[in-house]
Design a protein that fits this description.
Blueprint lengths: L1 H20 L7 H5 L14 H11 L2 H14 L2 H19 L5 E2 L2 E5 L2 E2 L8
Helix pairs in contact: 1-5, 4-5
């Protein structure tokens, strides 16, 4: 099952690259911005609950699809860029075992526990 889920996420990374190729941005923007959604971790400076809400907002694939759809309908390369980066980043995170966060701890994710006390399941 783990391999199947990772292959789905690989497909989403490839889809994000395909959609990105349809924008007017130079290719170097993709690797430069791919870590930008991790700005959502700043909420952990306040507390785990705020951190989880912000992190999940910046890593939600539905929001990425919403941005891609809005970009497509409105003809906005900026919205397409935001959506493709969000989609590609969240898919890469899930390939490496980093899932959406629970409000009790950064280490508790929908894919299992990460960090020193246990690998993601």
């Amino acid at each position: 099952m783990k391999t199947l889920l990772k292959s789905e996420e690989c497909g989403l990374v490839l889809l994000s690259l395909l959609i990105f190729s349809q924008t007017s941005f130079a290719w170097w923007w993709y690797p430069v911005l791919i870590l930008a959604p991790d700005i959502g971790m700043i909420g952990y400076l306040k507390n785990p609950k705020t951190g989880a809400v912000l992190y999940n907002l910046f890593h939600h694939q539905g929001i990425a699809v919403l941005f891609i759809g809005l970009g497509w309908v409105m003809g906005s390369d900026m919205a397409l860029l935001a959506g493709t980066i969000l989609l590609g980043h969240s898919a890469l995170d899930r390939i490496f075992g980093y899932g959406l966060k629970y409000p009790d701890s950064f280490h508790n994710t929908h894919l299992g526990r990460i960090g020193p006390s246990g690998p993601a399941s």
